[in-house]
Amino acid sequence: MDIQNKWGSNAGYVVVRSGQCAALAYFWNAKHSQHERGFGTGKAESADAASNIALRDARNQIAFGGNTKLVRYDCQK
Question: Domain-by-domain residue ranges, the chain?
Answer without folding.
Answer: 2-75
